[in-house]
Design brief:
single chain, about 230 residues, alpha/beta, 7 helices, about 35% helix, globular
Length: about 230
């Protein structure tokens, strides 16, 4: 049997300011650091020895993971970070206040862009400073793989194959794993794990800093789960 813990990063500076973040690399707010520490304390109570930890390459996820590992006093764990676990790219919405976006485009349209399965926001121009192509953090990624915008479906198409190849294989070998990622990359992974329909996935919300513990049998069937 394997133990899997999924954690959405703690509250970020842009979460607090109600700004659409996507691939922008912003840090945790003080409240987010506290959430990460509290998540670590909850995980510590489980007394699970973890074999691997996975994160996106964005600092709000990485710093959440680092705080958790420090809190549970886990020093020898294998930490793997990969951009496939990054948040969904929000296209032209990135770096914009969500309330202002709703005023400009209408609440229903913005809801489609943010929550639907396969409708992406309009693409971000390559010359925009907030495009990932113009950010140092993404310089080592093949430029052809860097998106201009993403739907949840396209987020799924990068996150889930990475999951199957790098995380699922370890779970099959009875390894205990913690994954710290983002609201939409985790929605994609949860859609896969729980076989959630395209229609129902729009209503799934992943809270910040709240560990989800999933118990899996030897065939990766979910035995039980709880926050």
């Amino acid at each position: 049997m394997s133990n899997l813990i999924l954690v959405r990063h703690g509250l970020s500076i842009f979460n607090k300011k109600n700004i659409a973040t996507g691939w922008l690399d912003v840090d945790l707010a003080k409240e987010g650091e506290k959430e990460a520490e509290e998540a670590g304390l909850l995980i510590k109570e489980l007394n699970i020895k973890f074999d691997f930890a996975f994160s996106s390459i964005q600092k709000r996820a990485l710093n959440t993971l680092n705080i958790i590992l420090k809190t549970i006093a886990e020093k020898n764990i294998n930490v793997v970070k990969n951009w496939a676990l990054n948040e969904k790219h929000y296209g032209i919405l990135q770096n914009k206040n969500k309330d202002e976006i709703k005023k400009k485009y209408g609440e229903e349209k913005v809801k489609q862009w943010r929550r639907s399965w396969d409708i992406a926001p309009p693409p971000l121009d390559h010359n925009d400073p907030s495009h990932p192509l113009n950010m140092e953090i993404y310089k080592n990624i093949n430029r052809n793989l860097i998106p201009d915008t993403e739907s949840l479906k396209s987020t799924y198409q990068r996150a889930v194959p990475y999951w199957k190849e790098n995380i699922e294989t370890k779970l099959l070998n009875n390894k205990n794993i913690i994954v710290v990622a983002h609201g939409n990359s985790l929605r994609a992974i949860l859609k896969y794990l729980f076989k959630i329909s395209n229609e129902k996935i729009s209503s799934l919300e992943v809270p910040t800093g709240n560990p989800l513990l999933i118990f899996l049998d030897d065939n990766l069937n979910i035995i039980k789960f709880n926050y």
